[in-house]
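Operator note (shift B, R.M.): manual run for shikimate dehydrogenase (NADP(+)) requested after the automated queue skipped it. Running by hand, logging everything below so the morning shift can see what happened. Input copied straight from the record, untouched. If output looks odd, do not overwrite the archive copy; leave it for review.
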Amino acid sequence: MAYSNLICNYKTRLMPIIGYPMDHSNAAQVYNKLFEIYNINKIMFPIEIKPENLGDFVAAAKTLHIDAYTLTMPLKSEIIPYLDEVDPCSRVFKSVNIVKTVDGKTVGAGMDGKGCIGALINAGAKLEGCTAVLLGAGSISGAIIYELIQHKVGKVMLLNRTLAHAQEVAKIMEDNWGLHVDAYESTPENLDACCSQADVFIQCSPLGMYGFHKDHEYLGFLEKMPRSCIVLDCPVNPEYTTLLLKAKECGLTIVPGMYMMLSQMTEIYDFCFGLRPGDAEKEEARKVLVAYLDSLKK
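Run finished. Output pasted below as returned.
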């Protein structure tokens, strides 16, 4: 890909995405396309940083005048002690995926929740008063639940293979914000019962993600959902997961994780650059990402 925005002078800035490992990373394709569209003199590329080397990276970023960078697992929690400021939700759930420098201070934020909400709203979800069901109690589930509750959902149910993890997220919500979340073990019976009430269903686990080598053992709960339910699956690759394909067969409205990532980009670009990419620009970036993912299959 050629980047017409790059002048390659002393003003050109690197904006890395860091994590470990990084062979699954594909976000740089989207960032770089939007940099080109908006003539931002930056370039993003993935860098593998092990947790024990994160302090070295933070020091190097200051030396190299890197004023913004993004993070993926397992560094989204590890970065927090190195930052000057972190928004309350990201600190509580230990999930930061964007860092910028403001007046010499490093400021971290998590955009997973906002990205999820944006994708749901774009798909037509009416969140106020609705029943939201989430599968998977990893780091992003808490941030998503936090944003759902800010949008006045009526009820939140969280299911996870290990019940204690779901209960932990529910307790954090209760202890920090006085917000109630129903927690369940993700048995077929519980999935069926919860999903029969769902207006919105969000799959937050890595199940079905390319490279994870594990998929859902049971998808019958999709058949129990009201036909008006909107189903979002967080993994970006593949674009259409097994869960989404099954949901589509059931006549449900589906939202691929790619659209959550693009909505998240809107929040990150606003956070870093004070601009919000429009639908046409995000569609251009999506096409670039799809073409890139397709090239990996050849």
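Quick read of the result: The mean pLDDT is 91. The two ends are 18 Å apart (CA to CA).
Leaving this for review. - R.M.
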